[in-house]
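S1.2 Input.
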Amino acid sequence: MSMFKPESYPSLSPYLIVGDAREVGRFLEAVFGATVLREHTRDDGSVMHVEYRIDDSVVMMGEAQGEWESQPAHLHVYVADAMATYERALAAGAEGVQAPAKKPDGDVRGGFKGPAGNTWWVATEQR
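S1.3 Output.
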């Protein structure tokens, strides 16, 4: 049992600064089946910090404010079915970047751009 981090959390989690954390969260729920772990709001109701679990990973984010501007990122997620995930993303409003296809490393991989301009690369190992 780890004493330096919450139980079941990975040691490394991406942290996104976005314009609308709830919009990104709804997208993560629709595409990846993400679930909220915890959320902290500011006095004005905006999201100061929120965490979503995707499989064995945690994505953390906060809403842009002051010097902390929204910044797009690239994230890679292994999923059970890259094509089905890609199609769910498009249905949820994502912009296709690259349709999933078999790559030289044996993975089927593709990408899409979601809310806040983040590019999500999804892959399924097929060796």
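S1.4 Remarks. The first helix runs from residue 21 to 32.
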